[in-house]
Amino acid sequence: MTAQPILSSRERPTRSAQARQVASSQTDLRAGEIVDGEALRAALKVLDTDETGTGANRAEARAEVLAILKRVNAEGRKAAERLLFEDGGGLLCAARISHLQDELIRAVHDFALHHVFGSPNLSAGERMAICAVGGYGRGTLAPGSDIDLLFLLPYKQTALGEQVAEYLLYLLWDLGLKVGHATRSVEECVRLSAEDFTIRTALLERRLICGDKALFEDLGRRFDAEVTAGTGRAFIAAKLAERDVRHRKSGDTRYLVEPNVKEGKGGLRDLHTLFWIAKDHYRVDTREELVAAGVFSRREARLFEKAEDFLWAVRCHMHFLTGKPEERLSFDLQPEIASRLGYTSHPGLTDVERFMKHYFLIAKDVGDLTGIFCAALEEENAKDAPGLRGLVRSFRRRARQIPGTLAFLTDNGRITVANRNVFTDDPVNLLRLFKLAAVHQLEYHPDALKLVRRSLRLLDGAVRINPEANSLFLDVLTDRHNPELHLRRMNEAGVLGRFIPEFGKIVSMMQFNMYHSYTVDEHLLRTVACFSRLEHGELASELPMTSGFVETIRDRVPLYVALLLHDIAKGRPEDHSVAGAEIAEELCPRLGLDGRETELVAWLVREHLTLSMTAQQRDLTDRKTIRDFAERAQTLDRLKLLTLLTVCDIRAVGPGVWNNWKGQLIRTLYAETELMLTGGYSETSRRQRADYGRRELAERLKDWPEERRAARVDQHYDNYVLTVPLDDQVRHAEFIEAADRDGRSLSTVARTDKFRGVTEITVLAPDHPRLLSLIAGSCAAAGANIADAQIFTMTDGRALDIVTINRDFAEDADELRRAERIAKTVESLLNGREAIPALLARRRPARSTKSFAVEPRIDVRNDLSNRLTVIEVEGLDRPGLLADLTGAISDLSLDIRSAHITTFGEKVVDVFYVTDLLGLKIIGEGRADRIRRRLLAVFDSPEGELSSATAKPSPVAFGIVP
Predict the structure, then answer these.
(1) What percent of the chain has pLDDT over 70?
(2) CA of 829: how far to CAs of 521, 740, 824, 955, 962, in Å?
C-alpha cells in the first residue's frame, strides 16, 4: 500500500468555517502578528544537527525545543491580548489563540516525525491525523481553555504513533497547557459516538490540524452516514435536556449578578448548543447558512454574532486578567473588565453597572435567539424535545380557535397567532396575546413570541395610552393563576419595557453590590411571584402571619402595581423610593387606577423600605419606635399592604437573604403597631409596667426559696423587666442561679431557635464598657454574624448580655455544637487566654469586599427614642468591625443598651441605643461631633482598634478579669 504523505503547509486547513467567517466578516485575523509558523518550524529544524536524528532526542535538545515553544507561546498570547485591546474582537481573539495553538502542534508534530523519530514516510498502518475536537474544533479558544485533541488512526495504535503522540503531549503539558486527548481508530470513533452524545458532540466539531487528510475525511463520511443519519431527534432532545440541567445548576436565570460567562443561562454554552444542533440537523457551519435555511433573519444573525463576539471578549479578558480559566464574572473582576472594555460612568450608573447591564441585555438576546431557533425546529418537525419550558414539539394536533377572538389559536396547550398580520392589523393584540394566555392558562408558542419580537416597533405612544391596552396589561399583572409567567414572557419578548418605558430602563440593570443576587427587573418579577404564592397559600408554613391576613386585603390591584413598580427608579441619581413614587403617580392613572388607588401605590413605593429598616434597625421595645412607625402607617389596611410588600421584597432579593429572624422582627413590629393603630396599646406608666413585670416573674418563681426568689427579682433594672419576655426572664434566672451556685463569675449558655432561624448566646460577666466589644470579637473570629444584641447591667455590678447570631446549620444538634464552640471562645477571650487579633487571623478568610466602596456615615440622633440616644453607623463591612465600633463607643464613655446589626452584602448598618454613664441622653453638638469623628476613625484608620494586631491582647487590661 502506498504511504500517505504529510500535508504541506499550504494544504493544511488553518481554521474552521466559523473562524474563517470571523476573519472575513471583521478585520483581518492578523495571524502574522501572533505566530510565524514557518519561522517556528525552521527554528526547531536547526536543533537537529545529527543526521540520524538521535541528537534531537538528547535532553538538552528537548529543553531547547521547549524553550522555543514557551517563547513563541508567550509572545503569541501577549500579541493576542494586545490586539484584543486594539480591535475589541472577542471572536477574533479566540480565533487567534486557536491559530497559535494550531501552529505549535503542527511544528512539534513535524519536528517529531521528521527529526526526532526520522519517519517522514509512513506505512498505511502508521498513518495518523491530529484533530481538534470540542471547542477547539470550532477554531476558537479562550486563553485558559482546555485543548481537546483526537489522535485518529486507521486501525490500532502503532509504536511510531504512540511515540509521536507522547512526544507532543508531554511538550504541551510542559508548556502549562491543559490537554484532553483520546487515541482512537475511525471504527472506535463511530461506535463510541453512536453510544455517547458527549463524544458525538465533540466529534461534531472536528477539525484537522495536521496529519493524514484522507483518514480525517473517512471519519467524516462514516460519522455522517452511521452516527448522525436518522438520529437527529434524539440528539436534539439530549442537547436541550443537557442545557436545562445546566441552567438549573446555575440558578435557572440569566440574571444572576455574578454570572458564569461560559456555562450560565444566556452564556456561550447556550450559543454553542444552538450551533451543535444546527450542524447536526441543518448541516450548516455558519450563521449565513442558518439565514439561508430560514432559521434566522439577517438581523437575528447579526444579533447572534454580536452576542457571541461580546461574550468571547469578556471571557478572554477574564482569562488574561486572572491568568487562569476563570468563568464566573465575580464582583472582584467586574470593575477591571468594565475598564478593559472601555465603559465609563453615567449619572446614576457606574461604569460597572453599565457594563453589566450590557452583559444581561446580551444574555437576554441569547434567550431570544434560543426561542427563535426552537420555533424553526418545530416548523421543521425536527423532534419532540424541550424548547421554551419544554415545549418544542412536533405538530400533532390541529390548531384550535380561542373563543372570542379570530387573531389567536391554541396549539397543543400554547397560544399562537392565526396569521402573520395579527399585530400590524391591531397593535393592541401585542397585549391581548398575554391576557388570553393568562385567562386560558396557556403557554406561548415560539412562533408567537418570535412575531412579537419582530413587531415591537408597533408599541408606540398611541398604544401606551390606549385604555383597552392598559386594561389588558392590568389584567395580566393581577392574574389569579400565575402572573409571573406571563409578565416574564412579556419581559423576555420586549413588550413590558416598550409598554412601560420606565420599566425598560431597568431591564437587565444590576446593582454593584453583594446584597442583590438578581437584576432589577428579575427582582421585581420575583416579588410579584412571591405575592402570588402567598395568595395561593403556598407559604403558610413559612409566613404564618402574612398568609393569615392576605385574603383580608381590599386593595389587591394597587398592591400588585406597587410590587411591580417599587424599584422602578433604580439607577437614578435621586432616592429611588421618592423617584419611584413620582413615576407611580404618573403611570397609575394611565393604567386605569383612580385617585385614591394612585395615591396608595405612590405611598407604598415611597415607603417600601420603611418597615424593613424599622424592624431591623430600631429597638422594637422602645415605645417611640412603635409610635413613630404607626404614624407613618396611618391605618391598619396600609400596615397590612406595606407588610406584604416588604416580605415579598426581601424574599425576592436572593437566596438566603430572607430568614426567620427577619420574619420575627417584622411580626413583632406588625403586632405592636396593630395594637397602637387599633387603640389596644396600653398607656400605663413605665413604673407601673415594671412593677407588674416583677410581680409576674415572682409568681413564676414561687417554688424558689423566698431569699433566692427576691434576689433574682430585684437584681434587674426596669429596662430588663420591660423588654425581656417572661419565659426568657425565668430561663435567665435559672442560668444566673446555677452560675452563683458554682461560684462562676463568668458564664455562658447557648440555645437555638429554629423557627426564628437564630441562635442565642447569653453571657454573664463582671460589667465593663468593653464587654460587648470582646463578645463581638469572639463571634467575628468564629465567623458568626451578629443580628442583635441586648445589654443589661444588673444591680450587683454584673452584666447580662444576650447576643443573637444568624443560624448556620439546619439541624439543631449541629447548630448547638457550633454555638457552644462560640460560647467557649467568648469565655477564652474574656479570661485572657485569647486575643481578638490572633483569633481573627486563624479564621477562614471572609469574602473580599475590596472591589466595593461604601462611604462611612455616622448619625447621632435624639429624636428616635424618648430615653436613649441612637447612633447609626453605615460603612463597608469587614471582620472585627462590630468589635471595633463597640470598643470605640466604650472609649467615648457611653453605655450601650442595645445593638441592632443589619448587613446588606458588603455594607453594614449598625444601630446602637446608648446613654452616658449617668443613664442620660447625649446632649450637645460638640459631643455628637466627637462621636462622629471617633467612629469614622474606625473605618479610616483601623490600626490600633480592638481587632488590629497592635491592640492590647488581654481583657486584663480592661479590668474584666482579675
Answers:
(1) 86
(2) 47, 21, 9, 7, 13
